[in-house]
TrEMBL record:
Protein name as annotated: Acetoin dehydrogenase dihydrolipoyllysine-residue acetyltransferase subunit
Cofactor: (R)-lipoate
Keyword Acyltransferase applies: no
Originating organism: Pararhizobium polonicum
Domain (Peripheral subunit-binding (PSBD)): residue spans on this chain: 108-145
């Protein structure tokens, strides 16, 4: 890697930071990485705005002294080697700013957008970016293609899906990695979600382990892949983990991600040091099939909101901003179609096709099950399929998404299991 693109600042100028706080998210062609504050103090300056492409080693921002707003010798939050270990807390790293090539004359575009543009002979200089950051995304390329060749638009959409599907053999799924110490903790999201859904838990997590959040196939920014069943889903994730050298991990899975975690543990390709299942699929036949169907088909905020409310016990959490953000992440019709096809295979006729109860009984690693008692998607009593080896956390007044409604309690349970297994 030679450069990354700044995709999100989680702090603003003037914010007080502690060493280790997540400050900014940068993106490579393959994954997003969270950059931590190397020292405590005040974020006194942002040097790389959202959408800026910056060389590895370049200066992102400056953390100044908490009293003076800017220290005489500031600590620099910079793009270090993506997989490098974090600096020790007792010796904050002070990096010399590296000259970064000016981006005013450069066209900033996502890697996939660049590839699709090249395949179709599109000059990126002619593409209008709709993103506030000015970064060209896939949707901008699609709009350009439709404007130039409206009749061929459906074929173009299919071509994009085919291009993504070709990544099947490589096992390259989209991952967000936060560098740390100790055994990596891998997080697998549920159906229709993505790796960003783990942010509340990652923020509350006390463990300083490396964390890896994965977009499942046909979700988020991972390839659209023909998946026959949950075990094939587990095989795809296992291949991606092996490709990253992650052969010993702590594993956390929610809902469909929970069933995928069970498939990974059953296959035994990856050594699972601890297993945390949150409202998991795979431990019984019942599931709210109407939710799966309605959520998959929703194309507008008005049709999506009622289904989102089924996910939680406290419906006030499903505010207009949450609905808009969820709809925006699902605006790609190809993504919705791929997930609808996946749901038809995994949950035929509103039933869970995969049954991991016997496999679960054979697993020997430390385990926890976390479930909201007011879960209306998968009955919490499926947790009783456990053999008594798993610690059971039943959360009152919580629905299908404990990691959203009770992030602190979920993070504490994961911390406890990880520490006990260390």
């Amino acid at each position: 890697m030679e450069a990354v693109v700044v995709v999100e600042w989680l702090a603003k100028v003037g914010d007080n930071l502690k060493a280790g706080d997540i400050v900014v998210v940068v993106e490579t062609a393959k994954a997003a990485t969270e950059i931590e504050a190397p020292a405590s103090g005040v974020l006194s300056e942002i040097r790389a705005d959202v959408g800026t492409e910056i060389e590895i080693g370049g200066l992102l921002g400056i953390i100044g002294d908490a009293d003076a707003k800017r220290a005489a010798v500031p600590a620099a939050a910079s793009v270090a080697a993506i997989d490098a270990p974090p600096p020790v807390a007792s010796a904050p790293v002070i990096l010399t700013p590296v000259k970064v090539e000016a981006v005013s004359d450069r066209i900033v575009a996502s890697p996939l957008a660049r590839r699709i543009a090249a395949l179709n002979g599109i000059d990126l200089a002619t593409v209008l970016a709709t993103s506030p950051s000015g970064r060209i995304k896939v949707r901008d390329i699609e709009m350009t293609l439709k404007a130039a060749k409206p009749v061929a638009a459906p074929a173009v959409a299919s071509r994009i899906v085919a291009e993504k599907a070709e990544g099947d053999a490589s096992g390259q799924l989209y991952m967000q990695r936060r560098a740390g110490d100790g055994m990596p903790i891998v997080f697998l999201h549920g159906f229709g979600s993505d790796s960003l859904s783990w942010r509340p838990v990652l923020t509350a997590l006390r463990s300083r382990n490396t964390t890896v959040s994965i977009d499942l196939p046909s979700h988020g920014r991972s390839p659209f892949m023909p998946i026959a069943d949950v075990r094939a889903l587990g095989a795809a994730v296992s291949a991606a983990l092996e490709g990253e050298g992650l052969d010993q991990i702590h594993l956390v899975g929610h809902s469909l991600g929970g069933a995928t975690a069970l498939a990974i543990a059953e296959a035994g390709r990856i050594e699972i040091r601890s297993l945390t299942l949150i409202s998991p699929a795979g431990l019984g036949a019942e599931i709210d099939g109407s939710f799966i169907d309605g959520f998959s088909r929703a194309t507008r905020k008005e049709s999506l909101e009622p289904w989102l409310r089924r996910l939680v016990a406290d419906e006030s959490l499903i505010n207009p901003a949450f609905v808009s953000a969820t709809m925006q992440s699902r605006e790609n019709a190809d993504l919705r179609d791929a997930q609808a096809e996946l749901a038809d295979r995994l949950f035929p006729d509103g039933t869970q096709a995969a049954d991991f109860r016997q496999a679960f009984a054979r697993l020997g690693m430390p385990q926890k099950i976390i479930w909201g008692i007011q879960d209306s998607i998968i009955p919490w009593k499926h947790a009783l399929a456990g053999t008594g080896k798993a610690g059971l956390h039943l959360l009152p007044a919580i629905g299908h998404m404990p990691q959203f409604e009770a992030a602190g309690a979920v993070a504490a349970a994961i911390d406890e299991l990880v520490r006990a297994t260390a």
